[in-house]
Amino acid sequence: MKYLISVLTDPTESRGNMVKVAHAVLYAMELKKNGHDVLIYFDGGGIKTFENESLRKYIELAIKEGIVYGACGYCASPSHIGGKEKIEKIGVRLIGNESSHIGIAELINEGYYPIIM
């Protein structure tokens, strides 16, 4: 199976949200370990994941495993949620730009089953 985990949860809002984001990454890594094709996409409030130092080790592991599809460039732009510089600094690609919000339809068309967190 192919899975797309779209992280929309803002981990800076609460400890509970931080745990949700950490588990999204852990679940993705577990799926990959068990032979599934899995990608993680950070969108909306999930963009703030890259500002949270407590989540750094999870993000680094996901990048190392090659399962981070990217982050929404529209949401990461300064006029929206922001955080573009931090995202680019760690090597996560931005998808879309300040005037173009890219959805997940392309990946769904490629057979990915969406899991929204």
In brief, what are we looking at here?
This protein has 117 residues and is α/β, with parallel strands linked by helices. The chain contains five helices and five strands. It has a five-stranded parallel sheet.
User: What name does CATH use for the topology?
Assistant: Hypothetical Protein Ychn, Chain: A
- CATH homologous superfamily assignment: DsrEFH-like
Uncertain regions spanning at least 5 consecutive residues? none
Shape: globular
What do these coordinates show?
This protein is of the alpha/beta class and 117 residues long. It has one domain (2-116): DsrEFH-like (Hypothetical Protein Ychn, Chain: A, 3-Layer(aba) Sandwich). The chain has five helices and five strands. It has helices spanning 15-33, 56-65, 73-76, 84-89, 105-109, and strands at residues 2-7, 37-42, 68-72, 94-95, 113-116. The protein has a five-stranded parallel beta sheet with strand order 4-3-2-1-5. Helix 1 runs parallel beside helix 2 (56-65). The longest helix has 19 residues, at 15-33. The chain is globular, with a radius of gyration of 13 Å.
